[in-house]
């Protein structure tokens, strides 16, 4: 088993029309044993920016604290909020810095640019980025998520369609993965703010 699969995770980001969504499951596991069912894996980094951190739970917490520290420094120096593209570059830099003893996380960034067009990107554990305009997935059930997203994704969905699509993709995918599940949470980022909803899933 890969160390990235030790705690289990399923994270998905998807674009819509002037909105972007990111969702994750709620399970924290010790391999096949469930430890908690309310583990947070998605963190708010700005008014229109969130990051999902699938991977080893201890490194998820460490990376969240490090990103908060670096963002506070950025706000002090620049006196403005960070753009998603800039945050993506910062994430890549932080991960590559530790390439010889990496953080065991594969982050997913989702946000809205200044013109409210969606931005999503994903990274491997040494910071190699991929930027796309439809969807990115991460965690232990990426194969299932890819299949569901390729079936359900449509361009230019509004925020309600985007929520429904992401919820169905996540819940269906984690049903076939023993290391993730126990419900989830979906965040939809719009120009007006972030809408968050929790999902109830199979409890087994």
Key terms:
alpha+beta; globular; Glutamine Phosphoribosylpyrophosphate, subunit 1, domain 1; five-stranded antiparallel β-sheet; about 30% helix; about 200 residues; 4 helices
- Elements, N to C (H/E): EEEEEEHHEEEEHHEE
Radius of gyration, whole Å: 16 Å
Arrangement of strands in the largest sheet: 10-1-2-11-12
End-to-end CA span:
21 Å
Class inferred from helices and paired strands: alpha+beta
Counting DSSP E segments of at least 2 residues, the number of strands comes to: 12
List low-pLDDT spans: none
Per CATH, the architecture is: 4-Layer Sandwich
Globular, elongated, flat, extended or rod-shaped: what is the shape?
globular
Q: What can be said about the biggest beta sheet? A: 5 strands, antiparallel
Q: Helical percent range?
A: 25-40%
Mean pLDDT: 93
Q: Provide a count of the helices.
A: 4
Oligomeric category:
single chain
Q: Quote the CATH topology.
A: Glutamine Phosphoribosylpyrophosphate, subunit 1, domain 1
Task: Write out the CATH superfamily name.
Answer: Aminohydrolase, N-terminal nucleophile (Ntn) domain
Q: What proportion of the residues form beta strands (DSSP E)?
A: 25-35%
CATH class: Alpha Beta
Summarize the structure.
It is found in: Nucleus. The protein has 204 residues and is α+β, with helices and mostly antiparallel strands. The protein contains 4 helices and 12 strands, in the order ββββββααββββααββ.
């Amino acid at each position: 088993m890969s160390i990235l699969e030790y705690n289990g995770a399923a994270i998905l980001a998807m674009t819509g029309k002037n909105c972007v969504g990111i969702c994750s499951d709620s399970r924290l596991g010790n391999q096949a044993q469930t430890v908690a069912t309310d583990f947070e894996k998605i963190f708010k980094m700005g008014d229109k920016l969130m990051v999902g951190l699938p991977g080893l739970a201890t490194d998820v917490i460490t990376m969240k604290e490090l990103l908060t520290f670096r963002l506070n420094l950025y706000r002090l120096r620049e006196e403005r909020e960070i753009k998603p593209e800039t945050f993506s570059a910062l994430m890549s830099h932080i991960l590559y810095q530790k390439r010889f003893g990496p953080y065991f996380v594969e982050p997913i960034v989702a946000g809205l640019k200044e013109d409210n067009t969606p931005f999503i990107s994903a990274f491997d554990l040494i910071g190699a980025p991929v930027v796309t305009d439809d969807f990115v997935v991460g965690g232990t059930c990426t194969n299932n998520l890819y299949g569901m997203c390729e079936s359900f994704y449509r361009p230019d969905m509004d925020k309600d369609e985007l929520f429904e699509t992401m919820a169905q993709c996540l819940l269906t995918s984690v049903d076939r993965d023993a290391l993730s599940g126990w419900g989830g949470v979906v965040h939809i980022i719009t120009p007006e703010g972030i809408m968050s909803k929790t999902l109830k899933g199979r409890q087994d």
